[in-house]
Design goal:
With 388 residues, this protein is α/β, with parallel strands linked by helices. It is built from nine helices and 14 strands. This is Myb/SANT-like DNA-binding domain-containing protein.
Length: 388
């Protein structure tokens, strides 16, 4: 006999569901003739349709004070409703199977998770989830709608579906992070969690480009620039006439870069021919073959004419070799040398930047001392004027 669930019958005295010894709950159901009846329904069946049952409370047995009160209570008790047999076939009004149920798994859970990760790998959603301005709950609701359109309904409504998608991604991220942490700490090897490779691809999608790749891309650019009131300018063009004022840092790696800079703190040039006219500059680092420099009011000038000491030049060797005559050992040696050259370049670059930062800190300290002396001088003048 097919029946449909209507509601859970609550005990009038305790306002709690009624259980039998088979872990079945007394419910009100609709019969085929649209009449209602009471029947015991398995608790697992009720949970499978998304209904959360309260925690079962087992009442303690009470000993009556006397038999007379018990007799009066039984006489005044209203007749209990008729309870039909336990339902064998149970049908719900909402027979949609939602994925990722906490009570039972469905055959579509694995396919749905793969589809979920594929949607997250979309650049549109990846950028929005990393953005700190866009509200994230709207994004998860959109992802829930996409899952529903793909044939994997997540929840009954959009709001609950967004929460469920958010929690699902957090669970996947936690398993991914635990596996990585155990590998780094040298603990006992954990079993690789499901979908690890797909999550790894999302996490490392925006990988950093190598120094050589960036250098090759920068050689093909040409961008005449005029910056004012900027903090950092990085140029790597063959011909780049630059006029910059009130800049803090300028890094040029061009073959020919006539530069006119005023009120700059740091200028780093690595050009073959760089006629420079700078005024009120504090630090100038040139590594060119021919660099006629005209500087006024400059404190430090560091010249390094050898191109091998140029921090921004390319490595001498290349690890991308297609010579089939090279043996594996020779190829490995070439890759090792290439890697060492890159590390050496980065080290020199770091040392130069460290020296520049120290110079700037000293200059700031000097400015603070000058400012403090001006304040003290103004205070003394004010006191003298008041005393007069």
């Amino acid at each position: 006999m097919a029946m449909r669930f209507k509601s859970i019958f609550l005990d009038p005295q305790t306002s709690q569901p009624t259980y039998n010894n088979k872990n079945e709950v007394l419910c009100e159901v609709l019969l085929e003739g649209k009449s209602t009846a009471l029947a015991y329904v398995p608790a697992a069946t009720i949970r499978s349709i998304g209904i959360i049952l309260p925690k079962r409370i087992r009442p303690k047995p009470q000993v009556p004070d006397n038999s007379q009160d018990l007799q009066n209570r039984s006489d005044n008790k209203s007749p209990s409703p008729e309870i039909i047999e336990i339902i064998e076939e149970f049908a719900s009004d909402n027979n949609t199977d939602y994925i990722w149920s906490p009570y039972r798994s469905t055959p579509d859970d694995h396919k749905a998770t793969k589809k979920f990760i594929e949607i997250l790998s979309n650049e549109t959603y990846a950028e929005k989830l990393k953005d700190k301005i866009t509200p994230k709950f709207k994004i998860w609701q959109q992802i829930s709608n996409e899952m529903k359109n793909a044939g994997f309904p997540v929840a009954e409504n959009e709001k609950e579906g967004g929460k469920k998608c958010d929690q699902k991604w957090r669970n996947l991220e936690n398993k991914y992070a635990l596996y990585n942490a155990s590998s780094k700490n040298g603990q006992l090897a954990r079993k690789k969690p499901p979908y690890y490779d797909m999550i790894y691809a999302i996490k490392n999608k925006n990988f950093k480009k190598s120094i050589r790749t960036l250098a090759e891309e920068n050689q093909n650019r040409t961008s005449p620039i005029n910056h004012q009131n900027c903090e950092t300018v990085v140029l790597s063009n063959e011909h780049c006439p630059v006029n910059q004022q009130i800049c803090e840092t300028v890094v040029l790696s061009n073959e020919q870069s006539p530069v006119n800079q005023q009120n700059c703190e740091t200028v780093v040039l690595s050009n073959e021919q760089s006629p420079v006219n700078q005024q009120n500059c504090e630090t100038v680092i040139l590594s060119d073959e021919q660099s006629p420099v005209n500087q006024q009011n400059c404190e430090t000038v560091v010249l390094s004419s050898e191109q091998t000491n140029n921090t921004h030049c390319e490595p001498k060797t290349s690890s991308n070799s297609k010579d089939s005559a090279l043996s594996p050992s020779e190829l490995l040696q070439r890759i090792t040398v290439h890697h060492e050259e890159i590390l050496d370049m980065q080290k020199r670059h770091f040392e130069e930047m460290k020296a520049n930062l120290k110079k700037q800190d000293d200059q700031r300290e000097e400015m603070l001392r000058m400012f403090a002396s001006l304040v003290e001088e103004s205070k003394r003048k004010r006191k003298r004027s008041e005393s007069d």
